[in-house]
Amino acid sequence: MRATRSLPSPLPPRRLSTAICIALALCGGAASSPLMAAEPAPRMQAPDVPGGALDQVLSLYAERAGITLSYSPERVRGLVSPGSTGAQSVEEGLARVLGGTGLVAEKTASGYVVRPVTADDSYQLQPVTVEAAPTQSAFAPVPGYFASHASTASKTDRSILETAQSISVVTAGQIADRKVDRVEDAVAYSAGVRTGGSGLDPRFDQINIRGFDTTMSADFLDGLRQPYNGWLSIYATEAFALERIEVLKGPASVLYGQISPGGMVNRVSKRPSLDARNRVEIQAGNHEHRQGQFDIGGKLDEEGDVLFRAVGVYRDAEYDIEQLNNDVRLLAPSLSWQIDADTRLTLLAQYQERETAASPMLYHDGNRLTDFWQGDEYFDKLDQRQWTLGYEFEHIINDTFSLQQNLRYGQLDTTNRYLQPNGTISNGVMERYAVGVYEEMESVSSDTRLVSRFATGTLQHTLLSGWDYAWFDSSVLYASGPAPSIDISAPDYHQPVSRPGSPLADQDNLTQRSGLYLQDQIELQRWRLSAGVRRDWVHVRNSDNLSDSNRRTSDSATTYQLGALYLFDNGLAPYASYAESFLPQSGTNANGPLKPTEGTQYEIGLKYQPPGSSALFTASLYHLTQQNVSTRDPLDPLNTVQTGEQVSRGLELEAVADLSERLHLNASYSYNDPEVTRSNDGNEGKEPKDTPRHMAALWLDYNLPSGLGFGAGARYTGSVYGNDMNTVKSDDYTLFDAGVHYDFAGELDSVRLAVNVRNLTDKQYVNCQDGYCYRGEARSLITSLSYSW
């Protein structure tokens, strides 16, 4: 039995309200009587407590009820409670607090003890009817497709149903069932999300939300920004290393600072958890795909205070352009230490090497996209090496205050080399030149916040006050040089190419971003209200080593957020919200450095989670505006002014459900009505390029009792304009995905054999922008054999 602490009571002369957090070895010790079989106790009043992290809800309930309550921190870690309202007795209130957690409260001589449900509890406990939806944690594994909680919108473990913003969650189960390795492919079934706007380009994820690009400005891992220097150094993330991916739609600057107005993608790493299953897997497929991966973890001590987890991936593969590699080596270890009942530290590390295409574009013959690739297999490639090390720390100071800090340090080295045609073709022979981009970057991202939970009258507050800071230092050398010619009809992709030696750019960049934020989440009976404000500062220093010059810019902004939601008993939750964003811009005009663009969004929506179900249905309407967009200066054709404006108005529908243990669903539809509302470039009133009006997706996975299972999906992307004047248009297309899997039984229990196909019909689709056309990824087939325990 570990040391305990008593929670202080605000009324010492009276009966103390004590919640004792004891590390019990619940499998041993003297037996005690079940709750309802115990000697009747004086009836006490049952308090109302809001939902939240189970350990905090239990402590609050014990204090308000005036009882002694003991529980093992390990058993409640990562669990979420729906809270309790309207209970007629303390016992009924405890049952409500523990609803859906697999735990019960047992009355003993020294108070109540929380323990797991046993088979004979139905005979020993007085039945209490509590209709509560399944509860989860935003950081622990979930069993299927449905996620009830998310952390991105609030930086706390909060119910999605009770959050007045639109959020999509892609769980590890969805990633595994569809066998995707890129984040871009993982979020392709989410409402409002456009992927692959530039066709197959594996250098980075192409993700567009509500008509605005998020690739460079809204890339987050575990709530911390993954910085981008404006060139090609972008931290890469393997989907298999993630517990989930959370897509927050609309401006989010109040909590995250400089960000795209469309929203953000937060990648949540796999971390130590007793709920996680170990897994090893091997894969083989077309395009020379060979892959092995593992995900293992467990306890390092008998009590379970120290947990570990390690994720690894080794892939040797190509794309449908056989000269383009898709190679990855990844190792991501993590360690969690429950230092005491109030203090937890999690260490997260990752090392990754990858090699892929430096320039996957095919040759354009006028306006026609050919099948000819103009590169060289040995020279053309993007080589990237990255590693990160960070921690997540939390300390519960008392019943009101919790201190949390996340920090990550990273290094990234990138070499990007490719060959380009110089426009001369004679007798079928193309003249080329070589390009090299060599980058180094190191970065620090941190977020320190104080979480305060308190009441003012009938209002229950979760007040978040924090400061985040990001620093990154990068250097870029951009050079060109001669390259051998190539015969288009008989290409030789293995010619010697010298390293480009003529520098076109040699730059150093130092960027510091910081922000102070305050957000209050308020519960008033069935109302869920939120209000936030933030002040940001950005300082950038650019050094041009070719001209020996320096340029410094500074920006600042204040942003706001408001939200209101009403939670009905039947699971319906209408909401309305307002949010702002700002995004610094590089470059200058005649007036000096460009101002940041600014985004504002008004959104109304309706969420529905049938009580007790593992399903969430969301409908949202939004009006999103981006201002300070650069456009031509009508008085000076060589200058730009920031008077442009772009608007997106749309509807999104999404359903994610574990309809049964055997049937899982993910469906979405998006309608976007984008418009350039202010411009001096002649495109006012036109649609922004590469922004489809309609998108839809549906994926179903069904498992038969025999162990055989099937998955099938379709992704529709509407037509898009390829230039600002809307005179070029790319056709719409539909891609089909499918999978079949078999779960063995008997001695081979927990072994799964699966075959997955993306773009089942090998649909050839092209997207053209500003005179360049990009071909989408061809059919890929992966066979996998996995074992879980």
Automatic annotation (TrEMBL):
Residues 675-691 have a biased composition (Basic and acidic residues). It is a multi-pass membrane protein. Residues 1-37 form the signal peptide. It holds the Pfam family TonB_dep_Rec_b-barrel. Residues 67-117 form the Secretin/TonB short N-terminal domain. Residues 670-691 are annotated as: Disordered. It is found in: Cell outer membrane. PROSITE patterns: TONB_DEPENDENT_REC_3. InterPro entries: Beta-barrel_TonB (IPR000531), Beta-barrel_TonB_sf (IPR036942), Plug_dom (IPR012910), Plug_dom_sf (IPR037066), Secretin/TonB_short_N (IPR011662), TonB-dep_rcpt-like (IPR039426), TonB_sidphr_rcpt (IPR010105). It comes from the Bacteria. Keywords: Cell outer membrane, Ion transport, Iron, Iron transport, Membrane, Receptor, Signal, TonB box, Transmembrane, Transmembrane beta strand, Transport. NCBIfam families: TonB-siderophor (TIGR01783). Belongs to the TonB-dependent receptor family. This is TonB-dependent siderophore receptor.
